[in-house]
């Protein structure tokens, strides 16, 4: 079994967090979840055994992905919701700082995977968007560690400069990128992020149908949550009350 958010152990933990949030704490009891948290941390340490600089690494189909969907950003985001030992905190923080120190030097975007030189994707699944949201969560969990807050804000700047892409969905499109701004708005209270989210949402109001028609080769995804028009609809609803917004299927 993998460790990632979409298909693995982190996804199971996320589902448990969701149930506990909306059906009551303890719906999925801690004694069932703690061993899975421990297994994810242990698996990450084994995966990083040949890598001195990064405490936790995971493979998905043989590749050490960094993104939120199948990689480090998503796994770390979920782990940040659970009680962690001193050693666990050190490894989670160390992994985040390793990623921060290995951003692309010019764009400040994040690689899709370990050692990948391709600097093209700015989306939730890969790149700065997922990292902005994960780092915002890290800043909330570790408020004294100012570098996480600063890195989250910097990732948001990458999204603002390069995130108006030609897809609409949450996973790889403009809707998902707009949620990075909403996460930063809740973190900082700075209205500039609310305005940026509204700007991306306005673009979708005007061009979403055209973008779907231009880019979709699989019509069954046209109205889906992560790749289709359901993502922009969630964004538009969340902009009614940005302080209460949550990235669907990611933020708790």
Overview of this structure, please?
By secondary structure, this protein is mainly α. It has two domains: 1-163, Glycosyltransferase (Alpha/alpha barrel); 167-251. The chain is built from nine helices and no strands. It has helices spanning 9-23, 30-47, 72-79, 86-101, 128-141, 146-162, 174-188, 191-215, 230-238. InterPro entries: 6hp_glycosidase-like_sf, LANC-like, LanC-like_prot_euk.
Query: Which CATH class of the largest domain?
Result: Mainly Alpha
What CATH calls the topology of the largest domain is Glycosyltransferase
Number of alpha- plus pi-helical segments: 9
Order of helices and strands: HHHHHHHHH
Distance between the termini: 24 Å
Domain count: the total is 2
- Mean pLDDT metric: 94
Low-confidence stretches: none
Q: What is this entry, summarized?
A:
The chain is mainly α and 252 residues long.
Characteristic key phrases:
single chain, 252 residues, mainly alpha, Glycosyltransferase, 2 domains, 54% helix
Secondary structure: elements and pairs:
Blueprint: H1 9-23, H2 30-47, H3 72-79, H4 86-101, H5 128-141, H6 146-162, H7 174-188, H8 191-215, H9 230-238
Helix pairs in contact: 1-2, 1-3, 3-5, 5-6, 5-7, 6-7, 7-8, 7-9
């Amino acid at each position: 079994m993998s460790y990632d958010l979409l298909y693995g152990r982190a996804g199971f933990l996320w589902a448990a967090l969701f149930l506990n949030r909306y059906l009551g704490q303890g719906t999925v009891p801690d004694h069932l979840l703690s061993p899975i948290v421990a297994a994810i941390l242990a698996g990450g340490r084994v995966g990083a055994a040949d890598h001195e600089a990064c405490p936790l690494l995971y493979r998905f189909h043989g590749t050490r992905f960094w993104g939120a969907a199948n990689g480090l950003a998503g796994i770390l985001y979920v782990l940040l919701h659970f009680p962690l030992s001193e050693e666990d905190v050190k490894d989670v923080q160390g992994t985040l700082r390793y990623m921060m120190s290995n951003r692309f030097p010019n764009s400040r975007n994040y690689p899709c995977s370990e050692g990948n030189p391709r600097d093209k994707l700015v989306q939730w699944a890969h790149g700065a968007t997922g990292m902005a949201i994960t780092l915002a969560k890290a800043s909330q969990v570790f408020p004294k560690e100012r570098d996480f807050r600063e890195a989250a804000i910097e990732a948001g700047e990458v999204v603002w400069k390069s995130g108006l892409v030609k897809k609409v969905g949450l996973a790889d499109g403009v809707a998902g990128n707009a949620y990075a701004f909403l996460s930063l708005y809740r973190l900082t209270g700075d209205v500039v992020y609310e305005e940026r989210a509204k700007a991306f949402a306005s673009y979708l109001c005007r061009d979403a149908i055209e973008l779907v028609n231009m880019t979709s080769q699989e019509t069954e995804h046209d109205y889906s949550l992560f790749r289709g028009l359901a993502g922009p609809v969630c964004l538009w609803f969340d902009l009614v009350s940005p302080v209460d917004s949550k990235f669907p299927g990611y933020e708790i």
